[in-house]
Design a protein that fits this description.
Elements: E1 2-6, H1 14-28, E2 34-39, E3 51-53, H2 58-69, H3 73-86, E4 96-99, E5 113-116, H4 121-124, H5 129-132, H6 134-150, E6 153-156, H7 159-168, E7 177-179, H8 186-194, E8 202-208, H9 217-229, E9 235-239, H10 244-255, E10 262-265, H11 270-279, E11 280-285, H12 295-301, E12 306-309, H13 314-318, E13 323-325, H14 330-340, H15 348-353, H16 357-366
Parallel strand pairs: 1-2, 1-4, 2-3, 4-5, 5-6, 6-7, 8-9, 8-11, 9-10, 11-12, 12-13
Helix pairs in contact: 1-16, 9-14
């Protein structure tokens, strides 16, 4: 069986790239599947023996989005097929074409498209313009409606993710929506295999998340200030590229005179990321978005306590292995951090089984057999 995996983004595209690492690792190690990768980033060559370059230049990206937004589906189909031909990629030679995230390029005449839909937060959290501005909302709605009627298999992350997709796009055939829970990217397991699992913890609380309003850094800082007044002393570790919202966060840090208690990194290498999981007192993720998230999985595998939002499918994801907080409540965040100092997760080893590479691979491969 031959599968083409398509993704026009770099290794550092946060959650999407982490998920893609897992997909490539599972498929390339299968004895039943011959896997090619099509991407416009050469850095992915090392992840797969067979690599096809795809010239997904900015001009085509804009064109395909415009054709989609204006419902010019016929022209989008023709332009996508031409695009693959110009890149010497014959999609008809593959049994499946797998898009690790939904993009307009998925729309071809291939009968076995597989498309991952990571979330529908543009509908369920419409107050955040980073996903629900007028243009972004219109684009995502048109895209997911097209996915719902022109894809053999739609992959979502959870039972709730499936329920939300079927509710949002009822025209979809419900049995075409399949659940494949996230796991950590493959490089995390490589470090687990080479390390013992007991680490000396430092008094840091780690939040590896890009700077956007929905990530909820502001309420986390407010919780930190309240805890500081009560005598708690720890450092917050943030990581995310510079943007306007990060500058707002940095201004709040300076205004409240807590610069010595907050460290911000533009980028963390894999070894640096893993070191924080090993050494931090806890990982916190007070995000408003879901249904589920990958960084808490990574932390859990290193036995780092996790404090996560109680919304969407996070309780389904971590069961009794996490501390749950209300992301709307500063006091709830305060209480969650306090609890982390005396928290012993239940059934952690059983929960970790859900995030094993073997289970992920088996579920993924089963999608190509129905």
């Amino acid at each position: 069986m031959k599968v083409l995996i398509v993704f026009p983004f770099s290794k550092t595209s946060t959650g999407i790239s982490s998920y893609t690492f897992s997909i490539i690792d599972a498929l390339k190690n299968s004895k039943e599947i011959s896997c090619d990768v099509a991407s416009n980033y050469d850095e992915w060559k090392s992840e797969c023996d067979s690599f096809k370059k795809i010239n997904y230049y900015r001009g085509y990206n804009i064109l395909s989005k415009l054709l989609l937004i204006f419902s010019l589906d016929f022209f989008l189909l023709k332009s996508n097929m031409l695009f693959f031909r110009l890149n010497n990629i014959k999609v008809s030679h593959y049994d499946y074409v797998f898009f690790t995230t939904a993009i307009p390029l998925f729309y071809t005449n291939h009968p076995r498209n597989v498309v991952s839909v990571h979330d529908l937060m543009h509908k369920y959290e419409p107050n955040y313009k980073e996903s629900s501005s007028f243009l972004k909302f219109s684009y995502r709605e048109k895209l997911y409606k097209l996915v719902s009627t022109n894809t053999q298999t739609i992959i979502v992350d959870s039972n709730l993710g499936k329920k939300q997709f079927i509710e949002s796009y009822p025209i979809v055939v419900s049995n075409s929506v399949k659940i494949l829970p996230f796991i950590a990217p493959s490089y995390i397991y490589d470090f687990l295999d080479s390390d013992d699992k007991t680490f000396d913890r430092e008094n840091n609380i780690f939040y590896p998340a890009s700077f956007w309003p929905h990530k909820n850094h502001i309420k986390l800082l407010k919780a930190f200030l309240l805890l500081k007044e009560e005598g708690y002393s720890f450092k917050l570790i943030f990581c995310g590229k510079k943007n306007s919202f990060r500058r707002k966060i940095e201004s709040l840090i300076i205004k409240n005179k807590i610069s010595e208690f907050v460290e911000i990194y533009d980028y963390l290498s894999v070894s640096e990321l893993i070191n924080f999981y090993k050494k931090s007192h806890a990982l916190i993720m007070p995000t408003f978005f879901g249904p589920t998230n990958i960084p808490p999985i990574e932390a859990l595998l290193f036995n780092c306590p996790i404090i996560v939002s109680n919304n969407y499918a996070m309780p389904e994801q971590f069961e009794e292995a996490a501390i749950y907080i209300d992301p709307n409540s500063v006091q709830s965040i305060v209480d969650g951090i306090k609890l982390s100092y005396n928290f012993t997760p239940s059934n952690i080893n059983e929960i970790k089984i859900k995030f094993s590479k073997e289970m992920f691979s088996n579920k993924l491969l089963s999608l190509f057999k129905h």
